[in-house]
Write a structure and sequence with these properties.
With 149 residues, this protein is of the alpha/beta class. It has 3 helices and 6 strands, in the order E-H-E-E-H-E-H-E-E.
């Protein structure tokens, strides 16, 4: 298992959680936009409240999808533009907020198992508590047509 984060503190928290549950974890400190993403390597890529400017998201999301083995899953949860109505956390810059439409466009060719904009109650640590507006996506990288039997 690999955890990539630009924040040393985020990696420390990931290490502590992995140790607590006896999970082996490779830590990589990197900016996901500049990171040299591997191709066809991961069974799953998970991005939870990892907000990026609209200008870099299409490329970043494509790298996430390409990093999956055929049949691998991409899970994304992020705040939607309606989050500003709740004031329960998340970016205030609207450019950093996600919509289902943009994710669908960014991940063209993926099989969507779930793609929704919804409201939910969050308890994600200090500053991210209460009713929230989120986008949730579970997408599968298609099987490689050249290797299907």
């Amino acid at each position: 298992m690999t955890s990539v984060d630009i924040s040393a503190r985020g990696l420390e928290k990931a290490r502590a959680l992995a140790d607590r549950h006896g999970v082996g974890l490779e830590l990589v400190r990197a900016d996901l936009v500049r990171w040299d993403w591997p191709v066809a390597t991961f069974d799953a890529v998970v991005a939870i409240f990892a907000h990026f400017p609209r200008t870099v998201r299409p490329v970043l999301h494509r790298r996430m999808l390409d990093a999956l083995v055929p049949g691998g899953l991409l899970l994304i949860e992020a705040y939607s533009p309606y989050q500003h109505l709740y004031r329960t956390g998340g970016p205030r810059d609207l450019d950093l907020l996600y919509t289902a439409f943009r994710l669908q466009r960014d991940l063209a060719g993926a099989e969507f198992l779930l793609l929704e904009e919804t409201e939910t109650d969050l308890l994600e640590g200090e500053g991210h508590v209460g009713r929230s507006a989120v986008v949730r996506c579970i997408a599968r990288r298609p099987e490689d047509p050249l290797t299907e039997s």
